[in-house]
Amino acid sequence: MKIKFYTGPHCSLCDLADVELAKTSVFSSLTVEKVNIRDSTDLYHHYGARIPVLKREDTNKEIGWPFDSADLEAFLQ
């Protein structure tokens, strides 16, 4: 499964989200593309106050912070 991980520079919450994502049972089968929202004005305006956000490419569903590994398990099923 392909996931977009919307993040930003020096984002401590994004670091925490990365740890939670790594705890999931499906982590090894994920393709995670980190996207720096500062690289796009549109992304910055859409996600600026919401990062970290994970988005499934197959369903376009998103989960935003705060979440834990149990929340992510449900999101990734």
Kindly describe this structure.
With 77 residues, this protein is an alpha+beta fold. A four-stranded mixed sheet has the order 2-1-3-4, with no helix packed on it. Helix 1 links the parallel strand 1 and strand 2. The protein is globular. The termini are close together. The model has no long low-confidence stretch (mean pLDDT 96).
Offer a concise description of the structure.
This protein is of the alpha+beta class. Helix content is 32%, strand content 25%.
Itemize the secondary structure elements and their pairings.
Elements: E1 2-7, H1 12-22, E2 31-36, H2 41-47, E3 53-56, E4 62-64, H3 69-75
Give the overall average pLDDT: 96
| Overall shape | globular
Element-by-element helix/strand order: EHEHEEH
Content of β-strand: 15-25%
Share of helical residues: 25-40%
Structural class per helix/strand content? alpha+beta
Low-confidence stretches: none
> Number of DSSP strands?
4
Distance between the termini: 10 Å
Radius of gyration: 12 Å
**Major β-sheet strand ordering:** 2-1-3-4
Number of helices: 3
* Biggest pleated-sheet summary: 4 strands, mixed
Keyword list:
alpha+beta, 4 strands, 77 residues, globular, four-stranded mixed sheet
